[in-house]
Amino acid sequence: MKFSKVFWAALLAVVVGSVISGLFWLFTFIGAIGAMGSSEAVAVMPNSIIKIDLTDNITDSPVINPFANMDFTTMSSSRTLPLLKVLRSIETAATDERIKGIYINVNYSAAGAISSAALEEIRTALVKFKESGKFIVAYNDVYSQTVYYLASVADKIYIQPEGSFDWHGMASVLLFYKGALDKLGIHAEAFRPTVCKYKSAVEPYLLTKMSDANRRQMDELGDGMWNTICTTVAAARGITVEALNKIADTTPVLFPEQAVEHKLVDGVIYRDQMEDIFAEYGVTRNFMNEFEFITLGDYCTAVGATVEDFSAPKIGIIYAEGGIVDGDNTAIDGNIYGTTLANTIAKARKDESLKAVVLRVNSPGGSALASDVIWREVELLKKEKPVIVSMGAYAASGGYYISAPADAIVANNLTITGSIGVFGIMLEGGDMLRNKLGITYDTVKTNPSADFGAGVLGMSLRKPTAAERATLIKSVDKVYEAFTSKVAAGRNLELQRVLEIAEGRVWSGTDAVKIGLADANGGIITAIGIAADKAGIADNFRIEEVLPELDPMTAFLQSLNTQVKYATMDNDLKALCNDYQTLKNDILRSGVQTYCPYRVWF
């Protein structure tokens, strides 16, 4: 009798719990659909001004997960704009009679979310927009360097009377974990070709500060990128690069009046006074005596349904965004799965309606094996139709590996690329388990190396033997030889020349063109133009994005797993979590890696 009561009570609890859980997910799903579908259609009114505030997430690749932008803690959704859509919308605005000009009024907190390379491409599109004769004006309370780099394209720039202006240069801050590993009793051992002295992804585990080689390359990379930014701003504002550097050296934070004095801005006014500026440019008010504004995101949505010539030949766009990892997986986790991307490229190769392909690469690299799987499909694709690589913020290490076979490579000036080198790393945690946690282990094995690599938490339980160490060194040497040989073949360079510019060294997009690792500086629009020319369809073509398919329910469940965890975090905490995720990925990486860890702060 007692068993029967317990059984039926437990069964009832399971049933009730299942019903409640089912209702929760049902209402969550309905709420998500409602949130996503609640936005009204956007109309572009006559005499409109496009407002660029960067509050929308601008990404290289389109979001294929329909729930990716949902915040399930507030049941609200944000908007993600693919970069290509943004660029084409700005191009459309130049000839759209309803658009009178563009107003750059950037949300300060949102500006840091966009990559420097994407910002460069948007700025280039705005330069082109100005050729239409329409105006661009900028106003902000606070100008960070990121915001000002974009705003410097404007005809006139204004600042709030009590605002501030930052101009302090660029920096790269690297974290080193050796001290923490020493305290924990974890021993790190790295394996990289002797010549890869610049391949410093292993340094955080071995050193407490940058090596001389790494410091030298980071100095040169930062100086080169900063010079590009200063040259661009100087040309737009009619001042000298020397003057901009003097400001950064002596007055990194300026008062509004100082910004005017140095010709960085044109005036100090309040936001409401911008209405007088718009009137000076001939913009008329609507029937409610107000100016018509439309955000860049809304304008992208409004013109997104523009009818194209569906009989025109097509150029395919394939996106390679994220770290490169092994396997076949359509998970939305920010990684490039080697087999998955290879299958997508193969799909484009077999599609006879695609006359050329642009491969947009935004990756710091990762698995050498996965990179080679992707490289093979790019090589096969090239034999069938023109392949042009467009490099985003990163196309380094494995990201360059998969780019090398292309017919042409287009890099942004602010792209970080190169890093042609490989490494392997092994963490040995036996001492930590024994001395810190009191955990011991014992082993039974059939052969001397049967337990090679066996361990926990991504750490081996013992150090490699001399024979195992020799095998690891041979592995990285073999991959480096293959990497450099494929770059030489793909770029039509002498192998010796590749070896001179490889060594794991990173280069800016500007320098990449000078040394032969890229063919031109520009963005994805430039790459599309080159692809059209090579395919002989420059006069008439349309774009088709070749994307992996994603099961909607999988996308929904993954969104619940990934989106909520960042919902209430501020930017500093998000950055800390990202650093932790990078560290975890580094520790858990297996096999030979082609990876570039650099991050430049602008």
Question: CATH class of the domain at 314-419 and 504-594, anyone?
Answer: Alpha Beta
Distance between the termini: 72 Å
> Structural class, judged by helices and strands?
alpha/beta
Question: Would you count the extended β strands for me?
Answer: 27
Average pLDDT works out at: 85
**Largest β-sheet summary:** 8 strands, mixed
Mass-distribution shape:
globular
Count, helices? 21
CATH topology name of the domain at 314-419 and 504-594: 2-enoyl-CoA Hydratase, Chain A, domain 1
Task: Detail the poorly predicted runs.
Answer: 23-27, 29-39, 72-76, 558-577
Helix content: 40-55%
Rg, Å, rounded: 27 Å
Explain what the structure shows.
The radius of gyration is 27 Å and the shape is globular. The protein contains 21 helices and 27 strands. Strands 13, 16, 18, 19, 20, 24, 25 and 26 form an 8-stranded mixed β-sheet that branches. Strands 1, 6, 7, 8, 10, 11 and 12 form a 7-stranded mixed β-sheet that branches. It has a two-stranded parallel sheet with strand order 2-5. The protein starts with a helix and ends in a 7-residue tail after the last strand. Among the domains are: 1-38; 48-167 and 251-302, 2-enoyl-CoA Hydratase, Chain A, domain 1 (Alpha-Beta Complex), CATH 3.90.226; 314-419 and 504-594, 2-enoyl-CoA Hydratase, Chain A, domain 1. With 602 residues, it is an alpha/beta fold.
